[in-house]
Amino acid sequence: MPRPILASISISALQHNLAVARAHAPQARVWGVLKANGYGHGLERAMRGFAAADGLALVEPDYAVRLRELGWTKPILLLEGFFDADDLPVLAQHDIQFAVHCDQQIALLEQFVTNSPLHVHLKMNSGMNRLGFKPEAFRAAYERVQKIASVRSITMMTHFANADDAGNPALPLAEQVRRFQAGTEGLAGPRSLCNSAADLMHGELANDWIRPGIMLYGGTPGGGTAADFGLRAAMTLESKIIGVQEVPVGEAIGYGSRFVADKPMRVGVVACGYADGYPRHAPSGTPVLVDGVKTATVGRVSMDMLCVDLSDVPGATVGSHVELWGNRLPIDEVAFAAGTIGYELMCALAPRVAVREVE
């Protein structure tokens, strides 16, 4: 028999969020980003949820091949590109497109002989300083790739560091756009700039392709919650209370005795801990719903359990329903309280947590 903790994944929510992404940039084609096992939702589930996407994007070559095996026939893009020469025959065989972000990759491409057409996404480092060619080196990289006989198309792409904080003085969004436009001026080929934050807040920047990720799962890249942007939570994590304790004034709760009751308290013990993917560093006060009523965690999260304050839920008892995040409690609200982001909570869902699909 399974423990009561359960993750519910809504395929219809994935479909809805994809439609929202497309509505923000109706002129663009959409890459549905499903890296990290579909942000923890499952690769195959995400593939079905994003069936209407124009292509799927991820970073894992083996998962890209798996998408072909699952029947995906539309474009697939590897956002980090290939990692060594042995990857290239496999990508060519399965018609998988890939990013090129450094001279070493171009050198491997120049040595690779194939009759299969290759589709390259040439990445510019417009200021984020992770992957890509600097603007002043981009044109030379483009010209090298253009000379490779097997390359049929070159899409130009960059990634925004602060689309959710466009005025950030360290790297304003407008400066990244300026650098990209200057570095690609006059070069033929599609452009791809917008991630989730840019799609939601700066749809005017969409060019030929957008690459939404977190928004497709009902998370938000900046302030606000899914509902603020018309998005729906695709993952709901729920469990049950498995024990109740009456804690007198002055007694402590949990490891390290970090929370001490300043009043008589009823405390519920929930079957969910950091081994399930709940953040261990979540402090007392992190929001939780018990029987639909918002309350909060108390004490340190342990491996298999966490404790919640039942003061405002007097009817709660063993077996009461607990929502850790999801339809009624936005994952971003929980993440903010825990000092992290919704992306991390989604991706951290542990394999031992049972998953069911819902509409």
Automatic annotation (TrEMBL):
Q: Which residues get modified to N6-(pyridoxal phosphate)lysine?
A: 35
Biological processes annotated in GO: D-alanine biosynthetic process
Cellular component terms per the entry's GO annotation? cytosol
* Ranges annotated as spanning the membrane: none
Q: What class of enzyme is it?
A: isomerase
Q: Which reaction does it catalyse?
A: L-alanine = D-alanine
Sorted alphabetically, the keyword list is: Isomerase, Pyridoxal phosphate
Q: State any single GO MF term.
A: pyridoxal phosphate binding
Which domain of life does the UniProt lineage start with? Bacteria
Query: Does this entry carry the keyword Isomerase?
Result: yes
Q: Where is the Alanine racemase C-terminal domain?
A: 234-358
- EC number, as in UniProt: 5.1.1.1
**Protein name in the entry:** Alanine racemase
Q: Which organism is it from?
A: Herbaspirillum rubrisubalbicans Os34
